[in-house]
Structures are given as C-alpha cells and as structure tokens.
Amino acid sequence: MNEPTRNERIRALRHARGWTQEQAAEAVADAVCAATNRGRPTGIDAQWVSRLERGELRWPNADYRAALRAVYGAATDAELGLSGMRSQAQDSAHAPTEVERCELTPTRIAEAVGNNDILTNSLAEALTAAAGEAADFGAWAEQMHRGTIAIERLHQRTRQLAGDCLTQPPTVVMAQARPLSRDVFALAREHHKPAQARDLYVIATYLCSMMAWLAGDLGALDAADLQARTAWACAELAEDAESSAWALSAQAKIAFQRKNFRKTVELARRGLRYDAPGTSQLMLRCQEADALSLLGAMHEATESIRRADTEAERVREADNIGGLLSCGPARHANYAAGVHLLAGQTDLALAEADRALNELMANSTYGFGTVAQLHLTRTTAYIQAGQIDGATEAVRPVLSLPPEQRLSTLTERLRPLASVLKRPALRGSAVARSLSTEIVDYCADAVSPSRHELTTGTGE
What we know:
The chain is an all-alpha fold. Helix content is 69%, strand content 0%. Among the domains are: 8-143, no CATH class; 361-460, no CATH class. Helix 9 runs antiparallel to helix 10 (194-217), helix 16 (329-342) packs parallel to helix 18 (368-384) and helix 19 (388-399) packs parallel to helix 21. It starts with 7 loop residues before the first helix and ends in a 16-residue tail after the last helix.
C-alpha cells in the first residue's frame, strides 16, 4: 500500500503562524463554530491536524475546508495544498463549466474505459468532482463514527465521576463535572443521528442529576434546583425510563432539603411510575418513606420501607451509571434505620445501622456520606435512649471528618442534636454539654452550613 502524500503546504502555513498542531486545531474549531452556529466540533483536535498534514485526511468536509481557508488566509482549497478537487460552494461563484455540464452516465464511462481511450479533460475532471463528493460524504461518515466514540467516552467518564462522588469531597467532584457537562452540552448541540442525540441527552440527565445532588450536599439549593430541572428537561427529550427516574430522585432530594416533604413524596411516586431497571425504584421508595416519616405518616412510611425491601430483592440489572446514582444495601439500610428511628423503634434502627456498617467495612466503594449518615442514626438512637456515652462514641467518626466532607445533609441532622443535648433533663451531664459544644463547632466548620431549622430524617 502506498504511503499517503504529505501535505507540506498546509504544514508550512501553520509554521508560518508559529502555531502548534493543537493551536491550529483550536483556531479551526472556533472558525467552524462561528460559521455554522452548531456548537464547537469535538472532532477537530491536534490528531486531526496531524492526519491532515500527513495526508491521511485528504478532503475534509465543506465546513471544515471553509474554516481552514479562513484561518490560513487561503482563497481556494488548492492554496491549502489539498487535492485539485473543488467544492460546489467554490464552483458556484462562477458560471457552470464543461465539467459541471458533463454527465457521468454508465455508457460514457464504459465507452471510455472499454476502448482504452484517453479520457477527455471534461470527463476526467467530472470523475474527480464525483470523487470529491464521495470524499465529502466519507468525511461526514467519519465524523459520525467519531461522534459515537466520543459518546462512549463521555459515558465512561460519567460513570467514573459517579463513583468519585462516593469517595471525594463534593467540591472536588463538581470541579470535574462542570467541564465534562460542557463537553456533553457542546456535542448535543451539533447535528447527530437520532440514537446519538438520545444517548447524549441521557448522559446529560445523569450529569445534571449528579450535580444537583452535589449542590444540595453543599447547601446550594437554588443551584441544585436549576441542575435538577435541566436533568428533567433532558430526560424528557431522551425518553429513557432509568435516567428519568434518577432525575426525579434528584428533585425529590432537593424538595426534602427544603422541608417540602409532601412534594418529596409526590416526586418519588412520579419516579416510581417508570418501573425503571437498576436500583432507581429502590431509591425512590426509600425517599418516599423518609419523607412520609417526617410527615408523621408512620404506617405509610413503614409500608414504603417494606416495599423497598421487595424492590431490593427483585433488582436484577446493574445501574447504568452507578456510584452516586445507585442504591445498594447500605444506603437502603440507612433509610430503613431512619424510619425506624422516627417510629421510636430504637432497637430496630440500631440493628439496621450496625448491619450496614458491618457490610461497609468490607466494601470501600460506599461513600463517606452514607457512612456518616449511619453513624448519625446510631448517635440519635443512643440519645433517644438516654445513653450519652454511647452517643459520644457513635458520633465520633462524623465529628472527625475534614471540613470539606462536612456536607449540608450531615449538618441538617447534627444541629438539632446539639439542642437536644441542652434540654433540662441533660443539663447536669458534663458529657452532654461537651458533646453539644463539639457539634456546634463541627457545624460552624462545615462546607456550607444550613441556616434553616433542621430535621432528623436522612435526606441522603
């Protein structure tokens, strides 16, 4: 196989401007974006420029050629060192030539080839023009394939990010999520096949749901609301059951943090209608139970937890994204323990929390947020039982968290405990006073302390 002919002309034009291949790619991508209003193309990068200069990419599509002419100040494609093919846009600036009038009928081609005649100039140029049209189509098809690869990579990065949410502070993960979401939004704005567009909207749904969750953990509920609404808008466009369920779960979490427990129940039940695969249904059942318990509807809350247990048993498929957007046994147990706690069933709450913590000791993939919530459930149970020493021991892992891991969802549960420890029945306890002071100090150093009255629900 012959080696491709290097395009020395376009390489020289880049060197004359003192650009690296990456800088040239940036300039061309910006030009395409400005000319087409379709968003910044993801396929133009340093590797794309390298392939062009090596001659592996002979004939970019019309938009890309126009951008190349603009950034290099070339009047024609020939000045860029591309082949002698001329685009229709370039030819349309003058009257039709003999080439344009020449029709490549099967008869004419057969006559020329069969008789070993030398092709006339007009026929040769017409063949070249047809090859150029085919090359344009090939470039477009290549971009479509590259788009598929890009979507697969974005999906992988989203899954990785969802896992990072469990082990890294929300500020760190949010810093990674933002540029990733920008890439997804930019790609979604370009023209794609329907299946690609749907995949991009699904990814956008998951990303916005995660960022809504993280913003809520930081106490930025207005920002969380905007992310959650965008997640739902993307889910509607994607028409995907699982991502729709998680978008509603994110909205339910924010409603819970705003203490709108009726809305939390409503959103959870809307999500349950999707009967989606994975653990989204289990998560929504747990959120429903959490909110019902805080509304005082303990019979309904207990029934929701029973149904959550059933959901857990029937989960057969893995979550599409996992990580933050999943509800494993420990997370499930955390919600169940919270409901038992509010029902006054201290022993059941402690049993659920202890079981979950024992499981977590053998599994490092669960997040520090869930672990902290379980410790707070045990702390609250001991305080309700009047066992302050047990509460002090139970809360120690939470109070030892570094400031960047002191989530708003944790301070929401801790702050009322400080008030409980100051009640008249415990005023004589030096341990209770000391613990109350520690909790107040913890909340003051949290990532984003809440200013609202707080509850003992998990709100995880």
